[in-house]
Specification:
With about 240 residues, the chain is an alpha+beta fold. Helices cover about 55% and strands about 15% of the residues. The chain has six helices and seven strands. A hairpin with a 2-residue loop joins strand 6 and strand 7. The longest helix has about 45 residues.
């Protein structure tokens, strides 16, 4: 102490600390739901969850910004540009959410039509599996009644067992597909959730309430900015 020039004066230190308090970054894993888009906003360019910064100036007073701070393995940073989230931003987001993109609706309808295909295949596979098991039972009966030799029995049993195992594995995979498809929303469900969202959003006062309203309907919101143009893609639950 006292052997080098001071890096900052006490006055400068106070000014720095005041600035840090006014312009602080919130970690996405801390203070969840403190902001309407907490846990929902993702960067289009790198796929990372975006972070929020609260700042303050004389003209605007307190304001919020969405920023991407992702850093790639080579040390370079994501080129995504941030945006001050003002009233216009939220109005545009609200309109985007309640007016569902027709392309999304078409994709949901296609999903619904594809949902029936695995179910039909499952029914066919189940009947085939029953047939193979009946054949295996008859094979055991034939061997017990000395209608076939042990060598023939073992060879045929191995073939039937492999077929049964293959069918059971295929059915397991198909049933998983059906469960996944069943969890995919229908067009009717999307419109019902949009109506619930509108009611919750209009009644929301705090940021936490708005965040809960969004999470009832929205899985994630993908953000991208090119110049002054901001694009928001809404992914529904």
């Amino acid at each position: 102490m006292g052997t080098h020039e001071k890096l900052k004066t006490p006055e400068e230190h106070e000014a720095i600390m005041e600035r840090l308090l006014k312009n602080r970054m919130l970690n996405p894993n801390s203070r969840r739901s403190i902001f309407p888009l907490s846990g929902l906003l993702y960067c289009e360019k790198c796929g990372s969850r975006m972070r929020f910064r609260v700042g303050e100036n004389k003209k605007q007073g307190q304001y919020w910004s969405a920023l991407c701070y992702h850093q790639y393995k080579d040390g370079s940073k994501c080129e995504q540009r941030g945006k001050v989230m003002d009233v216009d931003f939220f109005n545009a987001l609200y309109d985007r959410i309640i007016h569902v993109d027709p392309n999304i609706l078409r994709e949901i309808e296609l999903h619904g039509s594809r949902y029936n295909d695995p179910q039909i295949i499952i029914e066919v596979k189940v009947q085939e599996l029953k047939k193979q098991k009946r054949a295996l039972d008859k094979l055991h009966e034939s061997y017990e009644e000395d209608m076939i030799t042990k060598q023939v029995f073992l060879e045929r049993k191995a073939v039937r067992s492999r077929q049964i195992q293959r069918l059971e594995e295929e059915l397991k995979d198909l049933r998983k597909v059906v469960i996944d498809e069943r969890n995919y929303p229908t067009v009717k469900q999307i419109y019902e959730r949009v109506g619930q969202f509108r009611e919750l959003w209009s009644a929301s006062v705090t940021s936490e309430e708005k965040n809960r309203a969004l999470k009832k309907l929205v899985e994630r919101i993908v953000y991208n900015r090119e110049g002054n143009r901001v694009e928001l893609t809404v992914c529904y639950k």
